[in-house]
Amino acid sequence: HDLDLTCSGCGIAIQTEEKSEPGYAPLNSVIERENPVCQRCYRIKHYNEVAPVPLNNEGFQKILSDIGRRNALVVKVVDLFDFAGSWVKDIKKYVGKNPILLVANKADLLPRSTNWERVENWLAHEVKKQGVAVDQIFLVSAKKRIEIENVKTAIEARVGNRDVYVVGTANVGKSTLINGLLNSFGEEEGAELTTSRYPGTTLSTIRIDLPGHGSIIDTPGIMTTHRLTDLVSPKGLRDITPEEYINPKTFQLNDNQALFLGGLARVDYVEGPKQGFTFYCANQLNVHRTKLENADELYEKHLGTLLTPPYEGEEINPVLTNWVTHSFTLKSGHPQDIVISGIGWVTLRGQHYTTVKVHAPKGVDVHTRRALI
Ligand code: GDP
Fold first, then answer.
1. Could you tell me if 194 and 67 lie in one domain?
2. Cβ of 45 below 6 Å from ligand 1
3. Is the beta carbon of 142 within 6 A of some atom in ligand 1?
């Protein structure tokens, strides 16, 4: 049983004895395959199965804390669709004095009309606000393999004989990025990291040699609980995860109107003149407009049927229906986004004095920011 083998998908130690324990793989699959994968990765890959996460956050943090003690190059990945939600707050603590390349991933989700220079300036501004120095910022799509070459070139220029650590919260696309980079570095098809829609796919560090350099190391993503994506069911996740360019939806709202984002959050326009509210959410998410005075009743009656996700008949995480209210008063000035972590944001052009309330599950991060787009 001491196999001394790790899963090439998620990095966990492989064992062939206990089916219900992490790292299990049937013995014959381990013998037959050059790059064996555990049963969990096999299922994620072939059946799109949900991946239960058998590790706790302390384990993740210990792995990350090691980086600061080494001489390394750090590639920090964030999700452009949820910048604040995917930002690792303790990044400085983890990486120590090592240089950071910031990769803002999932650029393919932003609308076609996006002004990329503006987004890049926005990122630089936000990163500075966090008090973190990064050497360079890249806007990429790991999935569509856009701008991966530039990341590769920057890594090559800096890496020397150091190792490259890829870090970020769960689900930002680290494994997808590494698969893309390996391809760019000319690695033949071989081991492929397991990627999935569900946070927490990579379980341990995975080290892959870069020809002529050190290694590239995938780290398990830090798990969070403040993103709606961390809380919804697999079916709900499908509804709130954008799969392609977002088509922003603008609603001309009068005050005393409300908009439901599925059954997961509600935006109330409390006070101000008629104006456009532009929503950036998954195109397939069902958005429902109503009068403010009818909103509570509508929720009571139609949660799970008209207002989905969550869905009637599925086991609903009680957190999802325990809403708290966030109040915002926006003065006229610059365009502002109100962000609901994991589901998207609404942009107000900043022309009027406006009062808005957002109702969202307790613990989900809701905040305003200078408009991204
Ligand atoms: P990790 O947990 O950070 O390693 O993230 P994964 O690589 O497993 O990716 C998480 C999810 O994000 C998967 O559903 C990926 O298909 C998706 N994803 C990764 N990169 C991109 C991207 O560039 N664009 C989009 N739209 N989705 C991406």
1. yes
2. no
3. yes
Q: From the first residue on, what is the mean pLDDT of each consecutive set of 10 residues in the chain (373 residues)? A: 72 86 86 80 70 59 84 96 92 92 98 95 95 96 96 92 89 90 73 62 70 79 83 91 96 97 98 97 97 98 96 88 97 95 96 96 95 95
Residue 39 inside a domain? The answer is: no
Letter string b/e over residues 102-118, b meaning 16 or more CB atoms within 10 A of that residue's CB:
bbbbbbbbbeeebeeee
The model's pLDDT over 280-317, given as tens digits with 9 standing for 90+, comes to: 999 999 999 999 999 999 999 999 999 999 999 988 88
Asked whether residue 346 is domain-assigned, the answer is yes
Residue nearest to atom 2 of ligand 1 (CA): 171
* Number of residues in the chain: 373
Locate the ligand 1 atom nearest the alpha carbon of residue 168 and give its number.
3
Q: Rounded distance, CA 58 to CA 100, Å?
A: 23
**ipTM score over 0.95, yes or no:** yes
Q: Ligand 1 in contact with 158 (CB < 6 A)?
A: no
CATH number at residue 174: 3.40.50.300
Mutate to test the pocket of ligand 1, among 144, 195, 223 (most ligand atoms within 8 A of CB): 195
Domain boundary among 224, 244, 259: 224
Q: How far is the CA of 58 from the centre of ligand 1 (A)?
A: 23
Residue-range definition of the domain harbouring residue 203: 57-224
140-186 pLDDT, tens digit per residue, is: 999 999 999 999 999 999 998 899 999 998 889 998 998 898 888 87
Q: How far apart are CA 252 and CA 240, in angstroms?
A: 23
User: Domain total for the chain?
Assistant: 2
Ligand 1 mean position, distance from CA 143 (Å): 7
| Residue 204 within any structural domain of the chain | yes
What proportions of the chain, in percent to the nearest 5, are helix, strand and coil? 30, 25, 45
- What phi and psi values does residue 150 have, to the nearest 5 degrees? -65, -35
Point out the ligand 1 atom lying closest to the alpha carbon of residue 201: 2
